[in-house]
Design brief:
Protein name: Conjugative transposon protein TraK
Structural class: alpha+beta
Helix content: 40-55%
Number of domains: 2
InterPro entries: Conjug_transposon_TraK (IPR022276)
CATH class of the largest domain: Alpha Beta
CATH topology of the largest domain: Nuclear Transport Factor 2, Chain: A
Radius of gyration: 32 Å
Largest sheet: 4 strands, antiparallel
CATH superfamily of the largest domain: VirB8 protein
Oligomer: single chain
Strand content: 25-35%
CATH architecture of the largest domain: Roll
Number of helices: 5
Shape: elongated
Strand order of the largest sheet: 3-4-5-6
Distance between the termini: 115 Å
Order of helices and strands: HEEHHHHEEEE
Amino acid sequence: MFSKMKNIDTAFRHVRTFTIAVIACSLLFSCFIAYKSFMLVSETNSKVYILANGKALEAVAADRKDNIPVEARDHVKSFHQHFFTLDPDDKVIKANVTRSLYLADGSAKREYDNLQENGYYSNIISGNISQTITVDSVAVDMKAYPYYFRCFSVQHLVRPTSNVDRSLITEGYLRNVSRSDNNPHGFLIERWKTIDNKDIKIENR
């Protein structure tokens, strides 16, 4: 009889040990699943999808400080593309220049006024000239605020009788402003000026 009681007690201990082990494994597995689910939700929340031209593009959310150099370079590039993309159409010129002036201070407006007074835009229209720009690189110094930049680009002018490429080097400073539809990067170009602008290639058509 004592032998039977001993066997029952041993069996009970085995069952209890097995049950505790199963419960512990279940808890560990549950904690692992909860952790992985939390990580998946966090990763999902850090991503957004942008619809552009009928295509869903994935974007990753990040602190602005991580993207300041990228946004700064793109701001400078966008400004130059708007300011220097011209066609022989007064409405196109005004629309592009207006978009660019949202991205810069009065120094850009003064440059626009000077070009207008010198007949630059009138010559574009009367001469049926189209102008585009290719921004090669933008160097931004993030060590001091406001951020100094220098932009290296090439202007392409298509005239009825020739194609002209002109080097264009400009510089200025960037300061932070509020983001808006007209200024999505939240920067404003200050003290903008042209350092170099000369013909580098001329081809007859």
